Amino acid sequence: MDFDGEAKLTTLLAENNSTFREILKHSLKTHFPSMTILEAEESSEVLQMVNACQPELIFMDLQLPGENGLQITKKVKANYPGISVIIVTGHDIPEYRDAAIQSGAIGFFSKDSLNWREIETLIRSLNRNF
Prior knowledge:
5 strands, alpha/beta, single chain
């Protein structure tokens, strides 16, 4: 699917692993060239950027310096219920998956097996203009 170039989506990558963050950023830009991408490496930065920029979408790592991704997701969803959060982690276990959904995340993906078709479908479901 090609991006239609008209809709914009601001996305925050909350990930402390710079290599994975760059790979994710590159893949998102490839699939969604007009997407605005912000980056944060630790939980305090995530909250500052959310308050300042209010992105529509956050890719949230579970293990961030400071508070973990589930705690941050709960805070984001409490203050900005319209922001969609997708949890991305290297620990694909059922307990984390369940906790992610309970914290308000709309998706959960393992870093080891990212499925771009599923991610693209999920992002497009957030905005009909994609």
